[in-house]
Amino acid sequence: MNGDWLTTARQTLPRLLRLLDELEPTYRIQDARDVSPDFVAREGIEAVVWDVDGTLMSYHAPAIEPLFAPCLEALRSVGVRQAILSNCGEARFVELGQMFPDFPIVRAYSMGEERVYRVLHGGEDSLGSEKAKDLLARGARQVRKPDGPLLLATLEALGTTDPSAALMVGDQFLTDVASGNLAGTRSAKLPAWAKQTFPVTLRVSQGLERFLYRISRLRGPRRSS
Ligand SMILES: [Mg+2]
């Protein structure tokens, strides 16, 4: 998991300056329960893409936080499409597929200019673990948030064509909020759930991104283009 964090950091640092313009969330919420049927109806949101750790559960928990499960069910009952987008490793990705069989869980691998997308949904894996392993062995990298096309591919897996009617929900500015802004969706930032369960390296990076967010505020409003 430290390797995951380091990879994320290595891919993110060169883009930090540009990302400073992409850290302002559309909404600040207390936790996942604020994304209620009333909220999505009022805001015209048709699709919700969830981050997992710190958003729907504590760090690497084996199941969704029981307090939040009814919230996802309530959204489903009013026809809101939902998907999962996490920067997790390979094993955790498969685990998420078992936890959320009804939601597409999306990831991507990049090799040079080429990208391969992978969707796990209802027990079906569009790529398969063996092919994914083979790609990684041949030098492909996992595409991680923040990434606009990755979020757009997630919307495509949901059959949603209008990013402005979609909401990315997460606990991190640099991964979740920035992905939403890069893809042109809306974004909801919540404080990390059960922060004490996160490894020290992640807590440090969370502190760093709060600092970067404050800097981005000092730089003035986000550019409009
Ligand atoms: Mg998270």
What does this structure look like?
The chain has a five-stranded parallel beta sheet, sandwiched between helices. A four-stranded antiparallel beta sheet has the order 6-5-4-7, sandwiched between helices. The chain has one domain (2-218): 3-Layer(aba) Sandwich (Rossmann fold), CATH 3.40.50.1000. Helix 7 (148-158) crosses helix 8 (173-183). The longest helix has 19 residues, at 200-218. With 225 residues, it is of the alpha/beta class. Strand 5 (114-121) and strand 6 form a beta hairpin. 40% of the residues lie in helices and 17% in strands. It contains nine helices and nine strands. Bound molecules: magnesium ion.
Please describe the topology of this protein.
Elements: H1 2-12, H2 16-19, E1 27-28, H3 37-43, E2 47-50, H4 69-77, E3 81-84, H5 90-99, E4 105-111, E5 114-121, E6 124-125, H6 129-137, E7 141-143, H7 148-158, E8 166-170, H8 173-183, E9 186-189, H9 200-218
Parallel strand pairs: 1-9, 2-3, 2-8, 8-9
Antiparallel strand pairs: 4-5, 4-7, 5-6
Keywords: Hydrolase
InterPro entries: HAD-like_sf, HAD_sf
Pfam families: Hydrolase_like
